[in-house]
Design brief:
mainly beta, 3-stranded antiparallel β-sheet, globular
């Protein structure tokens, strides 16, 4: 029997020292056998305001990494792309 359903997100590390990673976009249900490649629809550069520290930074698409998480996004959550 498998465990609870996991979800997967694109995340980046906040550029503020000692801050936490930020969820950028929701990918879907996590599949441990899948390799998550950055889609061509992702802009090469984007800005994101960190909910933890409140600072806005510019990120490169290559800074994205997939990250599993136990819950789906809240209905009012706004992804970057």
């Amino acid at each position: 029997m498998s465990g609870p359903v996991q979800h997967v997100y694109w995340v980046v590390n906040c550029q503020t020292k000692n801050c936490r990673p930020m969820f950028v976009s929701y990918i879907g249900i996590y599949d441990e056998h899948r390799v998550y490649g950055i889609p061509s629809t992702v802009p090469m550069q984007f800005e994101r305001c960190c909910e933890a520290c409140g600072r806005t930074h510019t990120y490169n698409a290559l800074e994205l990494r997939s990250h599993p998480f136990p819950s789906a996004p809240a209905p009012d959550w706004e992804p970057s792309f």
